[in-house]
Design brief:
The protein has 240 residues and is an alpha+beta fold. The protein has helices spanning 2-8, 22-25, 46-54, 111-134, 145-167, 185-198, 203-210, and strands spanning 13-16, 32-41, 58-59, 81-93, 96-102, 180-183, 214-217. The strands form two sheets. It has a five-stranded mixed sheet with strand order 1-5-4-2-3. The chain has a two-stranded antiparallel sheet with strand order 6-7. Strand 4 (81-93) and strand 5 (96-102) form a beta hairpin. The longest helix is centred in the middle third of the chain and has 24 residues, at 111-134.
Length: 240
Amino acid sequence: MEHCRRKNGVDFLIRVKESWISEVKDLPMEEWDTDIPLEIRTTQTKADKAAYRNGTAKYASGKSKFGKYKSSQSWDFGSPHKMTVRVVRLRIADDKYETIATSLDRDSFPAGKIKELYNLRWGIETSFRDLKYAIGLVNFHARKDDSIVQEIFASLVMYNFSERITACVVVVYAIPRVHEYQVNFAVSSYICRNYYRKQQKAPPAILQEIAKYIEPVRKGRVDKRKLLPKSVVNFIYRVA
């Protein structure tokens, strides 16, 4: 967050867990909008350890000399460093809340505006889900930094190609149905990927093939978020 604000000069709006830090965890489960001051340290002296235990300071890893891109992941603002994060808790259902950390100004972006902006993130999150699981970017197949960047851009190209082809498919059904239907993007991306590799079928044939795989759109359907840690997959078992 501090790298975004200080080094890159961009604002952020990030969903965080209810137990993100102790200052957030101790707040009541209701709507609120508050500023949380933080003191960040990178050392491990006796005074630092005492501050970590009583909650007056937070520990962050210092600079790392290993890896080309590691500098953006380490603390680079001295120690101790004081910062303030605006945290907003929003009610999105009768018994469901979301907690947002942001750098946006409270006068220009009140809590109601933050809720609208958070709602706009939904399309981005579903795109990342398709990019990770339908396209296969959940695991990298390269080891070097340049190869990993190349793999990310290749996956983005395939995602955009699949989305463009899928958007041209028209779902038509002869008899009325209870739900509206949409194309299954996971199957569509698989068909597009095969066409991109082999290029055996003409585009109209691809559209007809994709149109066979549709799924209902169930509005208002919710599924409990599964926050489970994922184990590392060995390189020889990663499927492209």
